[in-house]
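name: query_chain
kind: protein
chains: 1
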Amino acid sequence: MLVRFIGLADAVVLAPDRSTLLAREGQRHHLPEMLRADATVVTAGSDVERVPAAPRRGVGVRSDRVARETALLSCWPVSTVQ
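structure:
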């Protein structure tokens, strides 16, 4: 269901314990630089199973700065973010 949502909503998913999930490669350039390299395009459930755990940055999985920078992306389809 997650992969179907990602595809239908053209969404970017920022999971707390996994790398960023993309519906398509074209979404990558909208991400903050520190999230781009680890982002993964998913088209099937097996893709999600292979997504690596998010790399640790600082003390937490994601810093407060990254959380603020990506909050908008987690709420809206990337195609609406300018």
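note: The CA atoms of residues 9 and 20 lie 15 Å apart.
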